[in-house]
Amino acid sequence: MVAYVNGILESIEEGNAVVDVNGIGINVNISGSTMDRMPGIGDVVKLYTYTNVKEDAFTLFGFLSRDELGLFKLLITVNGIGPKGGLAILSVMSPDDLRFAIMAGDSASIAKAPGIGKKTAERITLELKDKIKVTEDSLLSQGDSSLDGELSDEKSAAKDEAVAALVALGYNQSDAIKAVRKVLGSEKAAGAETEDLLKLALKEMF
Question: How many CA atoms lie within 13 A of 146 on its CB side?
Fold first, then answer.
């Protein structure tokens, strides 16, 4: 219903921001992560919003990026995750960290969010893995001009093998994916084969 709120940040406190839009103060629920990244009081702010409508309440949940809003909407499709639960998860995890955790089946990291139990976290990884997996390669190449477009078959295979090798060595899959992603974004990875990627990624793990 309300796509975004764009105005002057009037006040901010734990879990809530008031945005002045043409003289009207609008309450927007925000995550702890969003709160930490908000501008100062009196500055202009734009929050992309999700509208939660109940019989006795009309509540807005706001995010500084469409990416966060999109993940929030995905989270609340999971049985047992309401808007407050989705906000709690995004308070302790960045969008990238949440994607990695879901792809890696790392429910323990998600369960660290307040009010999110082990079974609920496992349900999130199970139900959202297929919906999130399509972004894996784009995440691995994010911010790297040499990796515009899709990874070549050879490089993609080397990436998968390097991640698998790190996991076999006992590293968490989520951390392994992050390390290989970082390596693929460096000049050192140009033309690197699996063994080279593994060596470079191992350095990132320390």
Answer: 12
Residues in the chain, total: 206
Which CATH code is given to the segment(s) 146-206? 1.10.8.10
Cβ(22)–Cβ(32) below 8 Å: no
**What does the domain layout of the chain look like in residue ranges?**
4-64, 66-140, 146-206
pLDDT at 198 over 70: yes
Cα–Cα distance measured from residue 1 to residue 144, given in angstroms and rounded to the nearest whole number: 36
Architecture of domain 66-140 in this structure = Orthogonal Bundle (1.10)
CA distances in angstroms from 19 to 9, 31, 70, 83, 91, listed in the order given: 5, 15, 21, 20, 20
Where residue 25 falls (left for φ over 0; alpha for ψ -120 to 50; beta otherwise) is: beta
d(CA 75, CA 83): 8
Fold of 4-64: OB fold (Dihydrolipoamide Acetyltransferase, E2P) (2.40.50)
pLDDT band for position 105 (cuts 50, 70, 90):
confident
The predicted model scores a pTM of 0.67
